[in-house]
Amino acid sequence: MKKPINQQDRRDFLKATAMLAGGAMLSSIPLAGAYASGSDTIKIALIGCGDRGTGAAFQALSTKFNLKLVAMADAFQDRLDSSYQSLSSKFAAKMDVPKERQFVGFDAYLKAIPLADVVLLTTPPGFRPIHFEEAVKQNKQIFMEKPVAVDAPGIRKVLAAAEEAKKKKLNVVVGLQRRYQTNYRESMKRINDGAIGDIMSGQVYWNSGGVWVRPRTANQTEMEYQMRNWYYFNWLCGDHIVEQHVHNIDIANWIKNGHPVSVQGTGSRAWRTGKDYGEIYDNHSIELTYADGAVINSQCRHFEGISNRVDETFQGTKGKIYLSGSNQAIMKDYSGKELYNHNTKGNANPYQTEHDELFDAVSKGEYKFSNVDYAATSTFSSIIGRYATYSGQTIKWDEALASNISLMPERFAWDANPKLMPDEKGLYPIAIPGQTKVI
User: Fold this and answer.
1) Is residue 388 part of a domain?
2) Taking the model in full, what pTM does it have?
3) Taking a C-beta distance cutoff of 8 angstroms, is the pair 257, 18 a contact?
4) Given this model, what pLDDT does residue 165 score?
């Protein structure tokens, strides 16, 4: 009898982290029914019409292939309307989304997914496991944004669906765009060839001033308020260590060709302390310890007026490297000799490259992309970071992955209450290290 996924050998989960740059080219295996039979038009559906979803649709429609957006889905009518107007102003000839294929509500995804060949899953990440599972069930090619879940049960759901996607030869690209960025790809080739030796330590950062706040309005239910302010609630966002910092932690895992076996660290609410900021921390500082004893330090914070830093550095036995999303890559040995300095000019937009490569494979009927394993690994590494800072404990990978603590509401409806509710002053319970149970 097959064991439950949370009891399986965890090493199976990690095999794909050894894949090389970006697309993790599996093979040119022909796809059965890559898109609509008898038509050279690839039909796409957008699930989640916020800014990132609209951006993903923009990038998909900007590819050289014959695409049409045929369905849109969002929890909110105004978000769908805004996205539709924005996309129509640029891609009128590629828009075929009449009112009857514009779906609104928690179940909108169920109506949109069946209508397309390729689905773009770009809602807040708490919904990603549910939507991914349905897209795989419906045999769709998939682009989905990072992170891929917000808790251990969600990660297990994603991993189970990923196995089905592989069996069905469904391409899945995940929006960890550094994997598709030229400076990272070129650097990783050199690191894998031993240019700076074995990686023994590193530092990864996402320090910035934070994001938007959407004030509570009259007659909003609690569910609508949290959905509108999804970034500040863990069932929707996972905290910014998961939603944003996953990019940098993913590079740590990529360069180490694995995942941390344990994580410890600290965090708090030091600057964003009011009721407008939900439950998340505004700073996290953690240590990721890998199986070979290497330790990578991770730091992310949302403070106003600070020096921003979003990049990664790593030290090997023979040299060191600096990387950033601004196309920089500088590799030196310990005598100061420059081993590689990436040319920052003329590099392709990695957000666009993700879609160019995905739709190239789909148009040719090829199976090339299975990004889910490394995306789930890095997402869960970030989740464990939150577990560590919230609890004040050292969190071990296997124990955390087996956790059955779900953050998701029991019911999705506008009159349903999320699990986390405010007190009479409008303040939300905050994790207290030493007291809060996370796994």
Assistant:
1) yes
2) 0.93
3) yes
4) 98
